[in-house]
Amino acid sequence: DTGVSQDPRHKITKRGQNVTFRCDPISEHNRLYWYRQTLGQGPEFLTYFQNEAQLEKSRLLSDRFSAERPKGSFSTLEIQRTEQGDSAMYLCASSLDNTIYFGEGSWLTVV
Amino acid sequence: QQQVKQSPQSLIVQKGGISIINCAYENTAFDYFPWYQQFPGKGPALLIAIRPDVSEKKEGRFTISFNKSAKQFSLHIMDSQPGDSATYFCAATRAGASKLTFGTGTRLQVTL
Q1: Which of these, B98, B101, B104, B94, lies nearest to B38 by C-alpha position?
Q2: Taking the alpha carbons of A107, B2, B4, B6 in that order, is the dihedral positive or negative?
Q3: Most CB atoms within 10 A, among A35, A60, A70, B26?
Q4: How many other CB atoms are there within 10 angstroms of residue B66's CB atom?
Q5: Does residue A103 sit at the B interface (CB-CB below 8 Å)?
Q6: Contact (CB, 8 A) for B6 and B74
Q7: Which of A43, A18, A46 is nearest to A32 (CA)?
């Protein structure tokens, strides 16, 4: 399968713990995005990489969130000191041009 | 500021009917308009997309109609099937931009 791959697909964590999600984009896609989606809402942009450079961050991305794409390939999204409000699906996407392809998402539940 | 408005919020259509979902945008710099289909528990899947240099694009049973002067675009699903039951999101972006701006979604149910 050559689509966008995300891991883990589901994560349940206690409030205050740190969690990390991994995204493997479609091969050769130089752009990588993270979005967040809550139930009944459309995806909301969090951050964007072109190759290894993080070029844009949303105001939604508080200082507890950090994303990296160290070699311009896979990316990680870490959430520190999780809060119940962080419960959502975290979507990774990649593109070569304007056509953006999403992964299946990583569901986070903070209890 | 919501830059892409989508309606209706939910839609029930009989099998074989036409489903129509509408979107309106504000930012005239937008020049790429995709539609995504999302099933429960899955990520959004690209369905069809249009650029403003054409007024209509058709792929199988799915058609996008685009009205540049009105800043509106719509998705038409012909011969709707129960398997089309999903949430549909319109989106917009501009060339070279870093992100999509999504509408709020339309939950489509196709009944037998």
Answers
A1: B104
A2: positive
A3: A35
A4: 18
A5: yes
A6: no
A7: A46
| DSSP calls for A79-92 | E-S--GGG-EEEEE
Residue pair B23/B90 in contact by the 8 Å Cβ criterion: yes
**What is the per-residue pLDDT across B36-58, written as a single tens digit (0 to 9) for each?**
999 998 999 999 999 989 999 99
A25 preceded by a cis bond (ω within 30 of 0): no
Both structure tokens of B91: 């989106």
Q: Which residues of A touch B104 (CB under 8 A)?
A: 41-42
Return the closest-CA partner of residue A91 out of A22, A10, A36: A36
The model's confidence at residue B2, banded by pLDDT at 50, 70 and 90, is low
